[in-house]
Write a structure and sequence with these properties.
This protein is an all-alpha fold and 190 residues long. It has helices at residues 2-11, 15-27, 37-52, 57-78, 82-92, 100-123, 127-147, 151-169, 179-182, 185-188.
């Protein structure tokens, strides 16, 4: 029946109607007719998800503040004892394949970046950039953690990475933020 419907529409050259039907049926998840769903989902799935999966502004705010507080706290407690933190981290990685020449600068930069990313997220300032930077930091930390086989720590890092990915996906819901005052509208939504 699916192919009959497509052939019928193509015969009368009513492509717009076909697109409308495929889009409607692929995005109407309550519709009992699953005949057009597969073809429509393949063609229109990005449009469907944007239509049905949104995030409220308060939910986005809570997620942004939660991950921002975590990153801010990580950086804040490490900054006063930066040398001690660096020595601890270098010692932790000395038996890994990562050279000390990479670990040492990273151990000094990490608290600064954590602090900055956390502060930016708490303020809602340059949220997209802060989320990207936070995600990159998490990828680097996950890689480093695998090099020392600390499998227990990876779960927390993956959760942080997921938070950053969610923030990036729904950055258009970032309404309660300094971004709205500082950045032009075209840079705050997309």
């Amino acid at each position: 029946m699916l192919f009959d419907g497509i052939v019928l529409y193509l015969q009368v050259f009513d492509l717009k109607r076909l697109v409308d039907i495929l889009y409607f049926h692929s995005c109407d998840f309550t519709n009992e007719s699953h005949l057009y769903t597969i073809a429509g989902a393949l063609l229109f799935s990005p449009l469907c998800w944007k239509k049905f999966i949104t995030m409220s502004q308060i939910t986005f705010l809570l997620l942004r503040l939660a991950i921002g507080a975590s990153m801010f706290g990580h950086g804040l407690v490490r900054l006063p004892k930066l040398n001690g933190f660096s020595h601890w981290m270098v010692g932790l990685y000395e038996k890994s394949i990562l050279p000390t020449a990479l670990v040492m600068p990273f151990s000094y930069i990490l608290p600064l970046v954590e602090f900055a990313v956390g502060l930016l997220l708490l303020l809602g300032l340059f949220t997209r950039l802060a989320a990207v930077a936070g995600g990159v930091i998490m990828v680097l930390l996950i890689f480093g953690t695998t090099m020392i086989e600390n499998w227990e720590a990876i779960a927390s890092q993956l959760i942080h990475a997921a938070f950053f990915a969610i923030l990036l996906q729904f950055v258009g819901s970032n309404s309660w933020a300094l971004d709205k005052l500082v950045l032009p509208r075209s840079q705050t939504v997309s």
